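thread from #wetlab-drylab

HS: before we spend reagent money on co-crystallization trials with adenosine-5'-triphosphate, can we at least see a predicted complex? here's what I'd submit
DV: go for it
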Amino acid sequence: MLTFIIFLLLALIQNMETFIKYLDDPIFRAVTKAAGEMNLMACVVGGFVRDCLLGRDAKNDIDIAVVGSGIDFAHAVAARLSPPPEVKFFKNFGTAMIQYKDVKVEFVGARKESYRCDSRKPLVEDGSLEDDQKRRDFTINAMAFDLRMSELGELIDPFNGMQDLRDKVIRTPLNPDITFSDDPLRMMRAIRFASQLDFIIEDGCYAAIARNAGRIGIVSMERVVDELNLIIMSSKPSRGFRMLDETGLLQLIFPVLLDLKGVETIEGKGHKDNFYHTLAVLDNVSNTSSNLWLRWSALLHDIAKPATKKFIPGSGWTFHAHEFKGSKMVSKIFRELKLPLNEKMKFVEKMVLLHLRPIVLAEDTVSDSAVRRLLFEAGDDVDDLMLLCEADITSKNQIKVKNFLENFEIVRRKLVEIEEKDRLRNWQPPITGDLIMTTFGIPPSRLVGEIKEIITEAILEGSIPNEFDAAFQLMLDEGKKHGLVPVGT
Ligand code: ATP
Ligand code: MG
């Protein structure tokens, strides 16, 4: 009994300690003051509490629940801050938001929710704090720290989220079938949190995701992809993707990725399973880069392998030109997944298109002109391209891997050396179409493009130096071949 009481006391002190450093924060002080003056129950709840207890960097994103009007309370808190921030409120939802310095604070009146089957938007009525905790997605997200002066910093944890945090388990407070069917986005969130925090999803809860996967159809693609991006940004994204696959969600949200799965064997020869290879490449890239779009490039680098697969008798499997076809598939995939159709997409297209180039370089003796060409085509993205290429080496053959990595070092050295000499990363060929036209006094024509192309090629090949004078001379020579002379001579 005594040990139990000591344990309880220790747990209490520990929880308090993690939060205590925040109690002096002006926002929490303002909440405590306002709660006292209005005689209301108010607490901080959700992600902030979870991250605080996990010792993760508490984010600048605070959720306050109050038993009363969230909007009135937000105004009262804002008035106690200096300078008082503007209160943005959403009457229909009964929520309010303030931005104080770099912290976003959301206020919600404690509520009870009930759902209809065709929408993830609930019917809402006022409720107790416990009602509000019950409507939250996972036990680890349903904990609150009391902000009333009399109970300051006390953990309110009706579903034993603290134990689940210790055991690294994702579990719903209520029946998971109801939780997931009510708001199917929670299935994506479960897998996202498991992937982000390196937790497991409790068995019953996991089985409920598989049973309710079909409900994901009522969620907008934008919200699904927000969660998918968070999975991709976790430190080992393959964990999340395996869960998405096992529960059947991946088939529903991103079926082309699953086309990569499987191994076919003909004449005793099989190819690698490109789905698991892709996940390995994604994990590898995630070890060296936190660029979301480079991670997307890893996910899509072999996407056209199923469409280009051929068995050549006597020789084996080929995926000829999968980088070209793959690059062309990117925009359709981005459109379907409601990803941005801007320069981020162009970056992914470029990475997919060029992803074999450094490997080819590393296989051959590395010629200067090939490196120049790569620098010209990849531009400033050449470093990202090298990371993707290195990540693509997932062979189990250690000797092969060692050779590749050594050759990669040579490629890297050459890239630096040639960039220093020729400055091709952001290079624009020195002779423009305009200059060709004004020099020879000719209108736009195919010939102008051809002369430009010959000059660019000559510089990349190294047959003339990357200098204006040499390029201008070549332009004159090429013009002469076509009977062109400079104006005024
Ligand atoms: P993070 O900010 O790291 O993504 P979070 O837990 O703070 O994690 P938010 O989306 O900011 O996630 O939501 C804040 C809180 O609101 C959650 O902790 C959870 O209690 C609740 N919540 C959010 N989305 C849902 C949902 N779809 N169903 C039930 N509760 C939810
Ligand atoms: Mg949050």
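DV: The chain has 25 helices and 15 strands.
HS: ok that's useful, forwarding to the group
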